[in-house]
User: Fold these one by one.
Assistant:
Number 1:
Amino acid sequence: MDDVFKALADPVRRQLLDSLHQRNGQTLGELCEGHDMSRQAVTKHLAILEDANLVATRKEGREKLHFLNPLPIFEIADRWIEKFEHGRLRALDELKKNLEGKRDGKG
Amino acid sequence: MDDVFKALADPVRRQLLDSLHQRNGQTLGELCEGHDMSRQAVTKHLAILEDANLVATRKEGREKLHFLNPLPIFEIADRWIEKFEHGRLRALDELKKNLEGKRDGKG
DNA sequence: CTAATATGCAACCATTTGGTTGCCTGTCAA
DNA sequence: TTGACAGGCAACCAAATGGTTGCATATTAG
């Protein structure tokens, strides 16, 4: 799970995922377009996404096709974020009250 | 949003959020317990969480109380993760098919 | 074969990150 | 007041990160 969080921490990598979400199966060259950095830099980012299992690849001739794997994202949503969701609507109110002051309901 | 992703990228920081989720309003000293690192290190992590608006604080005497703010997490769930959710159930199947081979429905 | 295309590998570099330590300030208790 | 407790600030350091460049390999087109 840590790999996934780390992989998602970089805006370039999130952009790459977005790009694959819009059009799956892009080659390395296609994924490089629109990024103001070298092909190697993009390759490294993609490698990190692959290690985190967020992207899977297949070689087709001399091209490498990249496919989005959203499962790790779902896992984060289900196993991690879901935990914080219980009092969602009251969350802001509770925070305000906590910052205002009374430590228990005691004072 | 980038601040939040970056803040969540570190396991220590996620652990701190978990800790606050279990018991809100902990002091710095309390949050340090169980972490095998100096108080200063934890302070830095908390500062990053504060910058990302994931933690809010209040001073009470000589203590600093820390409160979880889950709203940025909700935003990520709603604005970012939600985008990938559409074909959730078919996602794994699609990935398999994509990796197997046919590029379009054409071959 | 030759040349162009698509990608891979490795060395290198600056900056950021995550941690340390030492010392200072503010608050509570005796 | 004095000492202990809770926390803040700043300098410093090693390692990870994000990027570069140069060159090598494999595939396709002529």
Number 2:
Amino acid sequence: MNIFARIAAALDGLLNDMVQAGELPAGLNRAAVTVEPPRDPAHGDMATNAAMVLAKPAGTNPRALAELIATRLRALPDVEAVEIAGPGFINLRLVRTCWEAELAAVHEAGENYGRSTMGEGVNVNIEYVSANPTGPMHMGHCRGAVVGDALASLLQFAGHQVTREYYINDAGGQVDVLARSVHLRYREALGEEVGEVPEGLYPGAYLVPVGHQLATHYGSRFVDAPENEWLALFRETAVAQMMDMIRADLALLGIHHDVFSSEAALQAAGKPEEAEQWLREHDLVYDGVLEAPKGETPEDWEPVELPLFRSTKFGDDQDRPIKKSNGSWTYFGADMAYHFQKAQTADQLIDIWGADHAGTVKRIQAAVAALTEGKVRFDVKLVQMVRLLRDGEPVKMSKRAGNFVTLADVVNEVGKDVVRFTMLTRKADAQMDFDFAKVVEASKDNPVFYVQYAHARIASLGRRVQETFPDGLPAVDSTLFGPEELDLVKQLATFPRVVEAAANAREPHRIAFYLYDLAASFHGWWNLGNDQPERRVIVAGDPALTAARLHLSAGIGQVIRNGLALMGVKALEEMN
RNA sequence: GGCCCCGUAGCUCAGCCGGAUAGAGCAUUCGCCUUCUAAGCGAAUGGUCGCAGGUUCGAAUCCUGCCGGGGUCGCCA
């Protein structure tokens, strides 16, 4: 239990005592009562809003109630001072041994410091990436991949059972296009002059080897054969190889999914039919005709009767077709069944989507709400687009000739850790720029560098201290800490809170911001030693002080490593 | 036209399930250092939190309506 939760629990117990003593009515809802660090550290170590929240339902005023609570808080052994301020805040200051103990707890827990049981083992399925298996990963997929993966790690660390899943869209028209593109490369491999790849087919050279392989394997038997004889075979072969490429690309980023689900397999197993039947029985699917979209009507608009899901019952603007007029499933129809399937084994679902699919969020949430009867928490996290820049100039990309920036290109240029960290330096639903020059810049305004630099400085201490104190150091005496050192410990102590809050909000970027703040505090502390050698971590001639400061530094390093681990970034031992 | 996201300092962005004088980096200005604890350090200036209402003891945060930017819009994935 972290230090804030511990004080919150003590407060809760003390409120119970007040009920017993008749100072508070029984049965008050305490859900809104918080214990958190105040915005201004001058107010103390922690603040609670208990008096303000409970005063009205208790029929008293905040200041009077605060007095009663404060009296009991003062009796707690961890509490050094209590003050009432503003409209009824209760500010408390903890005894310093609390913080000394917290630093010890960082060392004791090590890589587990910050781990939480908040998730209570709840089973969360998080689906991310799910790029179409028609080519290598490009930068458009990158952000969602990193955000999804970091969120998965974060939820795990916060006590959830996490499944990382990838949905392979191997059943739609695009994979047929892929198969036809491969057929062209297959003919090419057999010596045919194919010239320029026709419009509408995938031009990328990455399909050449697939064509070669098919040519080697099957010879010329499919060259002039009708499409129905080779389409499925070519499609499956191509998809399998594209997925190998995608897995390799993801591996470059350190991403490994637990489950790969195939849309084709889902359909072959009759899952969409099952979902449809269940929905029809509950009058949530009916056969109907949609109105033409408002605004401009498409020229080729023809009213058709289709099986429609009543998503309007769940807040969508329009009911949505689950099958096309040719009888095959729409993407939504299959996706609905897919989510239904995921909900069989998971307590909560999360999808990470590109913002270009924002328009379809309501219908899938409606479908999940319908099929699970509202029992499964389901979040769709939208990840906004990333603009690629080189020295401030937008990187030109044309889809033609496969001239797009691939994920592999970027990772090879700036490195996995830089890509991952940078993708987490904005909240997911805000657009961001990725400038090749800036992300590798060695300066204070590059958070990647700044955090890594802090860790490298700490790591350097371990190497250097042996030169200064070859005979070793005495045991740690944390009573030697001054206010600056204690402030750093207090900042470390908020890490478990940040983890829980970030997991709860499904916002992994908060870890990155926390680490940046922590690094900034560390650098500030470190810089005190610039003009005052006695303020350095390693103080020649003072082994006791050195031991204490080294202990704190190592604690900071530990928390930085733990945060970076959640982001999937390796901490550097030295800068190069 | 509908829907979704965003709108906070000159710029790029944080702001934790509403909380006490709204934060950081860059830029600007002013000092310091020119170092071997490495690619600077310290400080100051700077904001009607897009606008207008509403809910609340209390709103950048929640609700409604506008304005501006981006995205998306029948059976594509």
